[in-house]
Structure formats: structure tokens, C-alpha cells
Design a protein that fits this description.
Layout: E1 2-7, E2 10-14, E3 19-28, E4 31-36, E5 44-50, E6 54-62, H1 69-82, E7 86-90, E8 93-112, E9 118-130
Length: 133
């Protein structure tokens, strides 16, 4: 089994028996500036700080490879609703200055069983950097 990374206890892994793969990773950041208007001249721009970084990705959850999409989605939902700050690790290194909170998730159901229960899907997750106080 190849563990690709994790977000808290949500493990991204790939093997011949299980799969919870991570895909479409995006990491973004931005700076804040204030613009001060000056009479009769050019406005003055001032750097005022840095916004928290944003991180987004998709987790592919096919039940036929041993993952439980409902269980993983419940973990994501619980973390998001609790506002819990989670460590993010990809490969062998942690990402961010401290931890991340889940801002939102979006589930796309790919397949259902004969009773309408979803058995495979893709969960898009959007994180925001959470710094130590």
C-alpha cells in the first residue's frame, strides 16, 4: 500500500486493494494592500499583511477498491462542522505553517447501488490555513 498523504486521520492511499486518491491539488495565497487617496496626486499603496493560504483538492472514493465513501465523507463533514484544525501531509512533508481548517466540501456521486446508496464519488475539499496563536 502506498500512503500518499493525509489530512488529520483522512488517509490518501493507493494499492491493489484500496484507493482514496488525491487529485487536482491547488495551493494559493494572497497579500493585502490598502490604497490611500492623496489630494492632487497619485494614490499611495501600502502593504498591510498576508491573507491565509487556501488549499483545495479532490479525493476519489471508489467503494470497489475498499474505501468507504460514506465513512470518509462523514469524517470530512464532522471536521468541517467542528472547525477542527488539521495537519496536512503529502508525501513525507507537512504543508502550511501549522494546520488547516475545512472551509467547504462538495460531493459528486459517480455510482449508486440498487437502493440508491452512493458507492463511489469524488469529494472536492477547500481548506484555509490556520495559524497558531
Amino acid at each position: 500500500m502506498a500512503v500518499v498523504g493525509c489530512l488529520g486521520d483522512i488517509i490518501f492511499q493507493v494499492s491493489d486493494k484500496t484507493m482514496a486518491a488525491i487529485n487536482d491539488v491547488k495551493w494559493s495565497g494572497s497579500a493585502r494592500y490598502a490604497t490611500h487617496q492623496r489630494h492632487g496626486g497619485n494614490a499611495l499603496t501600502e502593504f498591510t499583511g498576508v491573507d491565509p493560504d487556501q488549499y483545495s483538492f479532490e479525493i476519489i472514493l471508489p467503494e470497489e477498491y475498499g474505501s468507504s465513501p460514506r465513512t470518509e465523507l462523514k469524517k470530512i463533514w464532522d471536521y468541517e462542522r467542528a472547525g477542527e484544525a488539521l495537519p496536512l501531509t503529502l508525501g513525507t512533508r507537512p504543508y502550511g505553517k501549522y494546520r488547516w481548517t475545512i472551509l467547504s466540501h462538495d460531493l459528486t456521486v459517480k455510482n449508486t447501488d440498487s437502493k440508491g446508496n452512493f458507492i463511489s464519488g469524488v469529494v472536492s475539499i477547500r481548506l484555509q490555513e490556520y495559524l497558531e496563536r
